[in-house]
TrEMBL record:
Whole sequence portion shown: 626 to 904 of 918
Coiled-coil ranges per UniProt: none
Secretion signal, residue range per the UniProt entry: none
Top-rank taxon: Bacteria
Domain EAL: 23-277
High-level lineage: Bacteria, Pseudomonadati, Pseudomonadota, Gammaproteobacteria, Lysobacterales
Name the UniProt record assigns to this protein: PAS domain S-box/diguanylate cyclase (GGDEF) domain-containing protein
Organism in which the protein naturally occurs: Rhodanobacter fulvus Jip2
Length: 279
């Protein structure tokens, strides 16, 4: 953790002011990371509030740097975005997640939804839908097993083309979650888009529950609105029993957070999901 701290704070954060040579070094390292397969996915379970069953996992990318150790996405994704490498990372994540779904199916694991985060740049690109479709076909991913998490700000950035892309995703049988809902320039209009089936309540609203009357009001309003629109809700960043209690009583469908599980390796997920571990 010490090395990670040193590196993340000293090396990655000041990138804005970093010299061109440093940027080039990181660019080279990120490109090499793709070739050298230094990325890996971890998976965080999403539980059904009512039953406590694991119904989904969210794929989260990690960079296993040879010297720096594990680098978190909050550190390298903004850099990859500014370097124009994010689409290649997105593609790798999509292909790896689809391969994992196939492997889990072959191993006879209970079929859980696998959620993949999509960057704004990736979502906005004309080749996006084709890429997703190809990855699904290659691995014979049944519709309903793959879900895309797209932030409001990504939808906003894309403007008029958002609806056309959503229609295309819907036609592929894909469902979309609006990620980080309420943190950007919120527009309720996104919730009406085809393919949008889930609303993810951002951790920034969950962390204040149940003490903050503001957060209680906001979360209750989000849940009521989702219900009337026929959307399912997933709360992220649940860390305490009190947060779990509140969200369950308020009728939130699914929850994710350290209270239930940290993001885990694929094999740890398999162990968690195997009939044996249910006792
Ligand atoms: P996000 O989509 O909102 O993902 C949730 C983040 O919260 C994850 O951090 C997760 O590890 C963390 N988290 C989960 N439960 C808890 C909790 O109970 N407490 C706290 N404090 N944190 C919790 P992570 O993995 O570092 O990802 C950060 C962000 O990076 C993600 O936010 C997402 O926007 C982006 N990201 C992650 N993986 C990918 C990816 O494969 N592709 C793209 N384009 N973006 C990704
Ligand atoms: Ca997400
Ligand atoms: Ca979030
Ligand atoms: Ca997010």
């Amino acid at each position: 953790a010490k090395t990670e701290e040193r590196n993340t704070l000293r090396f990655y954060t000041p990138m804005m002011h970093a010299s061109t040579s440093r940027r080039l070094l990181l660019a080279t390292e990120l490109r090499q990371a793709l070739v050298r397969e230094e990325f890996r996915l971890v998976y965080q379970p999403s539980i059904e509030m009512r039953t406590g069953r694991i119904v989904a996992v969210e794929a989260l990318v990690r960079w296993q740097h040879p010297d720096r150790g594990e680098v978190l996405p909050s550190e390298f994704i903004p850099v990859a975005e500014s370097l124009g490498l994010i689409r290649r990372i997105d593609e790798w994540v999509m292909q790896t997640a689809c391969a994992q779904i196939e492997a889990w199916d072959l191993a006879g694991m209970p079929p859980v939804r696998v959620a993949v985060n999509v960057s704004a740049r990736g979502f906005g690109h004309t080749a996006f839908v084709d890429g997703v479709s190809r990855a699904m076909q290659q691995r014979r991913v049944p519709p309903g097993r793959l879900m895309l998490e797209i932030t409001e700000s990504a939808m906003l950035r894309m403007g008029d083309d958002t609806e056309r892309t959503m229609r295309a995703l819907h036609a592929l049988g894909l469902e979309v979650a609006v990620d980080d809902f309420g943190t950007g320039y919120s527009s309720m209009a996104y919730l009406k888009l085809p393919a949008v089936a889930y609303l993810k309540i951002d951790r920034s609203f969950v962390s204040g529950l149940p003490e903050s009357t503001d957060d209680v009001a906001i979360v209750e309003a989000m849940l009521a609105m989702s219900r009337s629109l026929g959307l399912k809700t997933i709360a992220e960043g649940i860390e305490t029993e009190a947060q779990h209690e509140f969200l369950m009583r308020a009728g939130c469908n699914e929850g994710q957070g350290y209270l239930y599980s940290y993001p885990l390796t694929a094999s740890a997920i398999e162990k968690l999901m195997s009939p044996r571990s249910l006792r």
